[in-house]
Amino acid sequence: MSHHSSHRTARGRKAAMMSLVTAAAATFTAFAFSPAASAASPTAHKPAVFVHTNDPTSNAVIVYERASDGLLTEVKRYATAGLGGSESGAVADPLASQGSLTYDAAHSLLFAVNGGSDTVTVFELHGTRLQRVQTIASGGVLPTSISVVRSLVYVLNASGDGDISGFRIGSDRRLHPIPHSTRSLGLGNPANPNFLKSPSQVAITPDANAVVVATKTNGVLDVFKLKNSGAPEASPVTTTSAGPVPFGLNFDASDRLLVAEANGAETSYQVKSNGGLAAVSHVPNGQAATCWSVLAKGFVYVSNSGSNTITGYSEDSAGVLSLLDPSGVTATTDAAPVDVAVSRDGNYLYQEATRAGAIDEFKVNDNGSLTRIGTITGLPIDNGSGIEGIAAS
Questions:
Q1: For 94, left (φ over 0), alpha (ψ -120 to 50), or beta?
Q2: Strand pairing partners for 101?
Q3: 10-residue block means of pLDDT along the chain (393 residues)?
Q4: Rounded to whole angstroms, how far apart are CA atoms 244 and 263?
Q5: Which pairing describes strands 265-271 and 277-284: parallel, antiparallel, or unpaired?
Q6: What is the largest CA-CA distance in the chain?
Q7: Nearest CA to 50 among 378, 350, 364?
Q8: Do 285 and 302 meet the contact criterion of CB atoms below 8 Å apart?
Q9: 31-49 b/e (C-beta count within 10 Å ≥ 16 → b)
Q10: Does the pTM exceed 0.85?
Q11: Which of 93, 185, 197, 295 sits at a 20 to 30 Å CA gap from 360?
C-alpha cells in the first residue's frame, strides 16, 4: 500500500503557542520532571481512532487523534509484524468480516489480525501511542475477526472449514491459548474461501458464557456454549438466520444479539441459556449489502456497502427495532462503506469507505440522526486487498 499520510481537504492545524513564566515556571518544571509526574505520557488520555491497513506486504495500524469536535488527525503508523490477507472475490472488503481490529478498553489493548500470516498482534494502548507487545499464532489459517469480553478472547479463522480458537488475557496483558479450544465450523470451503461463503464474525456473549459465529450465505448462526475452562462445547447450537447472509454481530444493553443481514435488514434475538436464539424483531431497510453495524446512544447503525448509505434503527425495551428514517437512509457515505466504529462516549461515528480511500466522520445526535462533519482522504482505494477494520477509544 501507499505510505503517504492521509489528509483532510481544506482543513489545517495551527500549532499551539505557550509562554514561560519565571519563578512559577521553575517550580512547575521541577514537578513536571519528577518520576511521579513523568510516569504518564502526554498522549495517555487522548481519544483516538485506529485503522487497520491490512497491507499484504506489511500490515499496520494507523492512529488518528480525535479532537474535541470529533475530527481526526493522523498521528503515526505502527507495524503489526504480520501480513494482511484477503478472500476470493472480495473487492471493497478484502477480509469480508467485522472485528478485524478490536479495542479492549478494560485492559487498554488493541488486537489486529494478520490474515496473510495467520497471526494476531497485540498492542498496548497509551492514548494515541501504541506499543507492540506480542504477535501470536491465531490457532488457524486466515484470521479475520477477534472478540474480547473480560479476559476471554476468541479469534475467527476463515480458511477451509473455518474455525474458532480461544485465548486468555493474562496478568502480563498477553494472550495465552486456551487448551483444546479450537472448534471447526464445518463449512467445507477451499483454503481461500469465496468472500460470500466464509464466516464473517466471532462474538463472545456479554456474560462470557457462549461464542456466536455468523456464516453469511451458509445462512446460520452458530452458538458454542463455553465450559468453565473457556473452551467451547464440542458442537454448536445452530439457528437458521431470520434473513439471508447474516454478517455483523453486536449486543445491546440487555444482552440481546443484533445481526446485520446483507440482504438489507437487521434482526434482534434473545440468546437462550441453552445457546438457542429466538428472533424478536426483523426489520428490512431497503438498502443493499447491509453488513457492518455499531451501537451508539441506544441506536443501531448499519453500513450498506452496496448503497453507500448508513441506516439507523431505534430499539425499544423489548428489543423491537424501528427504522429512524422511513427511506432507510440515515446518512449517505463515500463509496463502499464497510467497517464502522463509534467513539467511547458515543458522540462520533467513523465510517470506512474503502472504494473512496476515505473515512467519513459523523456527529451522532441525541435523536439518532447523523451529521457529516468531515472526511479523511488519501487512503489507498481497496481493489481486492487493502484497508479493512476500524476501532475507537
A1: alpha
A2: 112
A3: 46 36 36 36 78 98 98 98 98 97 98 98 97 98 98 98 98 98 98 98 98 97 98 98 98 98 98 97 98 98 98 98 98 98 98 98 98 97 94 97
A4: 6
A5: antiparallel
A6: 73
A7: 350
A8: yes
A9: eeeeeeeeeeeeeeebbbb
A10: yes
A11: 197
Q: Dig out the grid coordinates for 270 from the structure.
A: 434473545
Instruction: Please give the C-alpha separations between residue 192 and each of 142, 157, 161, 387, in angstroms, as whole numbers.
Output: 8, 11, 10, 18
Q: Can you give the C-alpha Rg of the chain in angstroms?
A: 21
Residues belonging to the chain: 393
**Nearest Cα to Cα of residue 341 among 103, 164, 135, 153:** 103
Phi-psi region of 358 (alpha: psi -120 to 50; beta: other; left: phi over 0): beta
* Collapsed DSSP state (helix, strand, coil) of residue 363: strand
Annotation: CATH topology of 45-392? Methylamine Dehydrogenase; Chain H (2.130.10)
Q: Letter for the amino acid at 335? A: A
How many other CB atoms are there within 10 angstroms of residue 307's CB atom? 20
Exposed e or buried b for every residue in 153-182, given b needs 16+ CB within 10 A? bbbbbbbbebbbbbbbbeeeeebebbeebb
Residue 131 neighbours by CB under 8 Å, 6+ apart: 123, 124
Q: Give 344's contacts (C-beta < 8 A, 6+ positions apart).
A: 47, 105, 392, 393
